Amino acid sequence: MTEPFVFNKIDKQFAFLKNREILEKLQKWNLELKFNTFNYDKPADEIDMARLIQNFFEDEKLLLSLQMDRYVNKIDVRQLNTDIMSMDFFDILYKASEPPVLRQTGHIVGCPPDVRNGVAVEDELRKMLLDEESENYDLFKEDEREELIFELFSSLVLGGPLCQYEDEIDQYFETTKTIYKDLVAIKQNSAGVKDIRTAAFIVDVQKQKNCISTHYQPGGACHPHQQTKMFFLVDPFYRHITIMSHEWPKNAL
């Protein structure tokens, strides 16, 4: 029988959390990111990721330390791609024309105001992110929308219920780049080719009882929403797990 992974919480410092400009932007966008980092005791490659995640959320002591119910019994896991090494990935936003998303100056093009699940949609960028009926929704293919960097960018742009949105794209690009570089680890093979070694997932943890589901994140129960996310990031070289989470408050729906 395979022994379960053993986890310990560690204190890991992220450079962007010491960056005053980044912190001010997150506050402006009403995005309260929470970080928890752990190590684990034995090697885990790609085929071990499902067991690693399962063992993590079966550890009652660990769940209690995160203020999550220790009787959670359902875990939905969505793996994200980590193939993108350059912000050129977002250049396609400049190519939309009917209607445009961005001007060549970087100005974000407005649209008739709407509200989707509590999120104010007042420009073509947010519309492209949220509305499948948007003329620009297909600018990014489905597998591109499953990229960690796209999910991070989307989280920053949509922000929280009291988000003060930007009129220019540069602030979103710069913040996405800074945080992404700090979250992912790069490896280089003998030929000098670099790629990302971090494995990334979005995890939804639930306690199901009597046909009722309660969802959890670090900090306690949460309400399902586009902007309620728990990122589970694994660095297999250092055997580190970073949980980055953000909750859309239930009373803001």
Automatic annotation (TrEMBL):
Keyword S-adenosyl-L-methionine set for record: no
Keyword Transferase: no
InterPro entries: CFAP300 (IPR029416)
Cellular location(s): Cytoplasm, Cytoskeleton, Cilium axoneme
Keywords: Cell projection, Cytoplasm, Cytoskeleton
Pfam families the UniProt entry points to: CFAP300 (PF14926)
Domain of life: Eukaryota
A Gene Ontology term for the protein's cellular component: axoneme
Similarity comment: Belongs to the CFAP300 family.
Function as written in the Swiss-Prot or TrEMBL entry: Cilium- and flagellum-specific protein that plays a role in axonemal structure organization and motility. May play a role in outer and inner dynein arm assembly.
Protein name (database record): Cilia- and flagella-associated protein 300
Native species: Oikopleura dioica
